[in-house]
Structure formats: structure tokens, C-alpha cells
């Protein structure tokens, strides 16, 4: 295991700034997600840690040793690529053994370590199977086994589950988390999938236009995003514009939205409310509980999603979204007036 420190790293490609003064620490033994849209710099950062790309400025340190100018083969990094990059002319065991073979490890030691790692990824019985005879999930585990059999200090994963269908991806998220905990290796993975980042990560870094926008635990980023971009990129969020006043934020319809005591008030001009934090009911003329914030809106349409129904609502010329858990009650018809209410603690102040 190893700690990785990225310190004020920048990278320019022509007129495009791929990374802009990025600093982030990956603590020993953790599982870290890098999340962002296409072109945000997350893959460039991953490849820079691996040694495929050198920074224009800044440092990358592994266990406090600078490595930003070391070639790939001297960094003791394991990497799983998006397309797995397996050798189709080799069977499972030979694919996994490849990294050990090129290091001239003794054959008996190769056999032992390959057997151990195939058992770890639950592919021991498929050691002689050809790659084209494997499912997508099995290929993913072969690629993972090949990356960890050399006992690297750091494991890097580039969109490791993107090639899998949804149901298999969920299963592999559980498997990947189990394997990472079993080998206790510092792991950094790139994804554009919000759910994957929340499910897998100990900590998440959100990148945009080459900058690190926010970093923290998945729960911290979801419950306390610092900006509109972070709030809307990591999950759904309803954004309300307003101005701060004594007691809350005055929004477009004149309502005063209250928030919890955790915020240091500065120059926030917006607030966000997660759709699942809002209670929805037909408007009856009765006021919502005095302890809650509340608005009135009109149902524009609704989408049945099995576990939840998502209501899209018109409010002051703006579209709001509310997730309601399905309990067997009838859907509220399109065109109905509804009341939205939520706890002040569920109001998130953002810039």
C-alpha cells in the first residue's frame, strides 16, 4: 500500500488546459473516485499518476517520493483499462501471469501467485478458459487479477465497469469493493457514473474544466455540495435563486426558505433541495407544518419508475423535481395543485 499526493499539478495541450493547479491526496488503502464530465481532466490525472503523461508543473509523490518524472515501469502501479486490454491469444492464467513473466519471476512462484489471485476474484476454475469464452464480468475480473498479481503499491482503474450492462455493473461494484478491501491496496478509479462514485468510493473528487471543484466523502459531497455544478452533477437537485435575509433566503415567489445552522453565511445566492427530501401532497389550502419550508406548484407530468415516481412540477416559470416512494397510492393527476414541504436542514446553501 502507499499514499499518493498530487501537488499543484497542471497540464496544457495546445490551447486546452487539461489540468489546472490540481492538488489532491489519496490516503493509504482507500478507494477513491474521480468524477466529472468528458474533458474534465479526470483521465489525464489518472494517466499522470500512472506515468503515461508527465505534468508541465507540480509534483506527484508516492509514499513521499517524487515520481512525476519516473517512467511507468518504475512506479509499481497496477492499471485496469476501460477496454481491459486482455490478450485474446492467451488463456485466463497466462493473461494474469503476463506481468510476472516479463519480470522474470520464478515459474513456481508465478503459478502460486496466479492461483491465489484467481481464487480471490473467484475465477480459479476458469484458469484454462480462453478470453473469448468469458462474459463481460469475467473479463473485468481477469483484468483486475492481472493488475494486482504483481503486488503494485497503487491500483488505477479507468472506467472499469463502463462496458458492462446495468445489472452486471451493480454486481461488479460489490465485487470490486470486496476485492479492494481484501487486498487493502490504495485504489483510484475514474468514472462519469454518479451512482458508481457514490457506491464505491471512500472519497470522491469532482473535476470540471481541469480544476478540482470539490473533494470529500460521498456523503459530504451529496449532502453539502459547495456549488450548483457539484449539486447537480452528483445527484439531482432543485436550484432556487434568492437573496440572504435574516432568518433565511428570500426566493422568487417571495417565500422565505430557512436552512439549518451548519452554514457560515457569506455570499451565497442560491439554495438546493434534493428531490427525495421533499414531501408532496395535493394542495388543500392548509398550511404546511410551521417547522418546514413549503411552496405550491402544479404537476406538469410524472414518470413511474418502479420503486419511485418522479413528479415534474411547474413553479414560478421553473421546473422542479420530486421523488416520491411508491406506496400503492394513486398518482396525483397532471394539472393538480400541490404543496411541497421540506425540513430547513435539507436546504443546501450554494454559490
TrEMBL record:
Residues 4-234 form the ABC transporter domain. It comes from the Bacteria. One of its GO terms (molecular function) is ATP hydrolysis activity. PROSITE patterns: ABC_TRANSPORTER_1, ABC_TRANSPORTER_2. SUPFAM superfamilies: MOP-like, P-loop containing nucleoside triphosphate hydrolases. GO terms for biological process: quaternary ammonium group transport. Keywords: ATP-binding, Cell inner membrane, Cell membrane, Membrane, Nucleotide-binding, Transport. GO terms for cellular component: ATP-binding cassette (ABC) transporter complex. InterPro entries: AAA+_ATPase, ABC_SmlMolc_Importer, ABC_transporter-like_ATP-bd, ABC_transporter-like_CS, Mo/tungstate-bd_C_term_dom, P-loop_NTPase, Transp-assoc_OB_typ2. This is Putrescine transport ATP-binding protein PotA. It comes from Caballeronia sordidicola (Burkholderia sordidicola). The lineage of its organism: Bacteria, Pseudomonadati, Pseudomonadota, Betaproteobacteria, Burkholderiales.
Amino acid at each position: 500500500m502507499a499514499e499518493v499526493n498530487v501537488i499543484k499539478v497542471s497540464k496544457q495541450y495546445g490551447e486546452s488546459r487539461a489540468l489546472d493547479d490540481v492538488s489532491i491526496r489519496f490516503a493509504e488503502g482507500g478507494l477513491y473516485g474521480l468524477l466529472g464530465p468528458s474533458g474534465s481532466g479526470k483521465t489525464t490525472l489518472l494517466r499522470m499518476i500512472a506515468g503515461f503523461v508527465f505534468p508541465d508543473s507540480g509534483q506527484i509523490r508516492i509514499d513521499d517520493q517524487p515520481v512525476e518524472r519516473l517512467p511507468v515501469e518504475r512506479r509499481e502501479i497496477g492499471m485496469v483499462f476501460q477496454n481491459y486490454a486482455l490478450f485474446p491469444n492467451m488463456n485466463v492464467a497466462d493473461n494474469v501471469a503476463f506481468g510476472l513473466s516479463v519480470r522474470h519471476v520464478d515459474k513456481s512462484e508465478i503459478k502460486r501467485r496466479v492461483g491465489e489471485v484467481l481464487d480471490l476474484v473467484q475465477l480459479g476454475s476458469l484458469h484454462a478458459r480462453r478470453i473469448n469464452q468469458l462474459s463481460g464480468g469475467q473479463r473485468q475480473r481477469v483484468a483486475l487479477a492481472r493488475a494486482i498479481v504483481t503486488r503494485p503499491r497503487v491500483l488505477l482503474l479507468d472506467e472499469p465497469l463502463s462496458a458492462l450492462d446495468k445489472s452486471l455493473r451493480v454486481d461488479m461494484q460489490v465485487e470490486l469493493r470486496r476485492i479492494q478491501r481484501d487486498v487493502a491496496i490504495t485504489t483510484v478509479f475514474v468514472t462519469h457514473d454518479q451512482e458508481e462514485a457514490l457506491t464505491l468510493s471512500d472519497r470522491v473528487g469532482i473535476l470540471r474544466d481541469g480544476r478540482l471543484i470539490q473533494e470529500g466523502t460521498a456523503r459530504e459531497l451529496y449532502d453539502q455540495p459547495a456549488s450548483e455544478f457539484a449539486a447537480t452533477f452528483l445527484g439531482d437537485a432543485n436550484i432556487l435563486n434568492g437573496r440572504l435575509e435574516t432568518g433565511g433566503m428570500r426566493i422568487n415567489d417571495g417565500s422565505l426558505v430557512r436552512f439549518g445552522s451548519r452554514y457560515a453565511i457569506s455570499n451565497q445566492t442560491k439554495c438546493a433541495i434534493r428531490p427525495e427530501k421533499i414531501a408532496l401532497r395535493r394542495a388543500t389550502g392548509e398550511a404546511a407544518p410551521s417547522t418546514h419550508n413549503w411552496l405550491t406548484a402544479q404537476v406538469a407530468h410524472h414518470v413511474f419508475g418502479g420503486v419511485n415516481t418522479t413528479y415534474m412540477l411547474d413553479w414560478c416559470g421553473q421546473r422542479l423535481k420530486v421523488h416520491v416512494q411508491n406506496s400503492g397510492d394513486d398518482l396525483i393527476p397532471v394539472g393538480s395543485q400541490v404543496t411541497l414541504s421540506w425540513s430547513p436542514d435539507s436546504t443546501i446553501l450554494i454559490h
